[in-house]
Specification:
5-stranded antiparallel beta sheet, 24 helices, 11 strands
């Protein structure tokens, strides 16, 4: 029951121009930060008196690393490879070995932590077991029933790291036997989700990359796409020429222009009546488009041009499902080919000139782009954690995402493998598995009996998708209304003819129309939400959520209550917002609304 301050090192910063991991600089940084964290023990604030006392008594530290995924890719190593796991294990061993050696040096000058003497025998036994793993031993561990995964020296792409790992642990054990340790714990691997952004990491903690193409926001608004910087480095490491790298990167990111594009290009647009000025308008819109179809609309081109020059039907263009390119006679295959040229594949699968044997180097936690199929297996995550765990004095914070179709048996096998490989912690998350939680807390009556809850959930889940969506939306919003409005409150209906406004925007690349209805005094009394090309269940959910909120507003629920309840809700679609001058990013459609 202790706490520790965290610090993480960006591993990619220790890769020199020759592709070698600068182990001397890394060891120096580890020593420095061990001392800094030791000093911070006296500066920290803790959540309770008990935790504060134990943290002072055991002086626990939390040094770790981030961006191992970026380092491995830059080195041309697939995350799911023996070489990658060996390199990760060696770096982890060096980090913790140097930490404890430094801790022993501080103990020589300042004395060991207060609880060392009563735990001396046990702690030294743990240190010896760490050292055995660093020496690659498969047996001889003291009082361990499940053996850890030892350092795979034969697979390490940089042999001197193995030598440094073993030397650091030999020093840590010998000095600890003489002087004890200043700190009971020195290392953990934290998620680094926030600090990783500040450190300019491509990947967080021990995680692999999640996407090969990322979006950078511009200070003046908008964004631009960039390839993960580890990708060009990896391609150079693998021996590709600058010209080949440029072609591969262009395939992933896209060229951002219809000039010379297959299927849909400047020449074919001019054949259909587009003028150079209108083509320039389209080109500007393509710079921030996720899909070229988003750039072709009457708001960009002007309704008069669309009807009089292009010959498009005005009523048809008002349809949310209207596809201007299809209406102009372009086939689906032509549009997709142009899309790939302009917006990029967002994956390296199918990239020109990329060898199949190099694809594993660029595998991510999830399939990349719309056409990507490859992604890392659950087992690959577990085995990477197991390679580092024998050399981390704490645990590894990492969530392993499983697909929605993962079975109970799949989860069982994942936990069993984690236990067999001596992991200290493992968190599995199956996509969509939290559905029962909002069902229990938001959709069921507050006074429902515990023994009736499971039956009620099963009844709800058995409903068709659209009916479930309606119940979810209405129940969640109306429970909020019930908390705020007195039961005798009457409904204040809107006038038959009322004012309002329509706001169109793109949230994470998905088109959203938000419409309002207002009372004569300008107060909002209803909202309508229309989604462009969403599935029936999701559109039904949004429509019924809007109805439920509208009913609450008409019964007197303050708009601020809804804002407080639904701001920062997180689910897809989410991300960059286009078309709204004040909102640039949203964590979900409800957050945007």
């Amino acid at each position: 029951d202790t706490a520790c301050n965290l610090a993480s090192l960006n591993l990619l910063q220790f890769r020199d121009a020759d592709g070698r991991f600068d182990v001397e600089a890394f060891e120096h940084a580890v020593k420095l930060w061990t001392i800094v964290l030791e000093i911070s023990v006296l500066m920290a604030q803790f959540p309770s008196r008990e935790i504060a006392e134990r943290s002072y008594k055991f002086r626990t530290l939390g040094l770790g690393f981030a961006n191992i995924g970026g380092l491995l890719m830059s080195c041309g190593l697939g995350y799911d490879s023996r070489e990658a796991r060996s390199l990760t294990g060696a770096i982890s061993a060096i980090m913790t070995g140097v930490c404890y050696a430094t801790s022993a040096q501080m103990a020589k000058e300042l004395g060991p932590f207060a609880g060392f003497e009563e735990n001396r025998e046990h702690m030294l036994r743990v240190m010896r077991n760490h050292a055995r793993a660093a020496h690659g031993l498969n047996g001889g561990y003291e009082q361990v029933s499940v053996y850890p995964v030892p350092l795979d020296a034969a697979s390490c792409p940089q042999p001197d790291l193995v030598d440094h790992a073993r030397a650091s642990w030999d020093l840590a054990v010998s000095m600890g036997e003489r002087y004890g340790y200043r700190n009971a714990q020195t290392t953990v691997i934290a998620p680094t989700g926030t600090i990783g952004l500040v450190m300019d990491c491509d990947t967080t903690g021990i995680e692999p990359d999640f996407a090969l193409v990322k979006f950078k926001k511009l200070a003046g608004g908008g964004y631009f796409k960039i390839i993960n910087r580890a990708v060009p480095q990896a391609l150079r490491t693998l021996g590709y020429s600058d010209k080949a790298i440029e072609a591969i990167v262009d395939y992933a990111v896209g060229l951002g222009t219809l000039a010379n594009a297959p299927g849909v290009n400047h020449e074919r647009l001019m054949e259909r009546g587009f003028t150079p000025d209108k083509i320039n308008v389209i080109e500007k819109a393509l710079a921030t488009a996720f899909d070229i179809r988003f750039a072709f609309n009457k708001w960009q081109l002007g309704e008069d041009f669309c009807t009089e020059v292009l010959g498009l039907d005005a009523d048809a263009m008002d349809d949310l499902d209207f596809d201007m390119l299809a209406a102009l006679g372009f086939t689906k295959q032509e549009i997709e080919a142009a899309n790939l040229h302009v917006c990029g594949a967002m994956t390296l699968e199918g990239a020109p000139g990329l060898k199949d044997e190099h694809l594993p180097v660029f595998d991510c936690a999830n399939p990349c782009g719309r056409i990507g199929k490859r992604y890392l297996s659950v087992e690959s995550h577990i085995r990477m954690m197991a390679a580092a765990q024998p050399f981390i004095s704490g645990a590894i914070s990492k969530t392993i995402n499983m697909p929605n179709n993962a079975s109970v048996e799949d989860c069982k096998e994942s936990y069993l493998l984690s236990w067999k490989l001596a992991l200290k912690a493992n968190a599995l998350y199956r996509d969509g598995s939290k559905l029962s939680q909002p069902l229990n807390s938001q959709l069921l009556d507050d006074d429902i009996e515990d023994d009736e809850e499971e039956s009620a959930v099963e009844t709800l889940v058995a409903q068709p998708a659209q009916e479930r969506a309606r119940i979810v939306a209405e129940r969640s919003a109306m429970q909020l209304a019930e908390r705020v409005v007195a039961s005798e409150k009457t409904r204040d209906r809107l006038p038959d003819r009322r004012k309002g406004y329509t706001q169109k925007a793109l949230v994470g690349g998905h088109k959203v129309y938000l419409r309002t209805g207002e009372y004569d005094d300008g107060k909002i009394g209803e909202i309508f939400i229309d989604m462009h090309k969403e599935g029936a269940a999701f559109r039904s959910l949004m429509n019924n959520f809007a109805i439920a909120v509208s009913l609450g507003l008409q019964y007197g629920v303050p708009l601020e209550e809804y804002v407080e309840a639904f701001t920062f809700t997180r689910f897809e679609p989410a991300g960059l917002v286009q078309g709204n001058d004040r909102i640039k990013n949203a964590t979900s459609i409800l957050d945007y609304i």
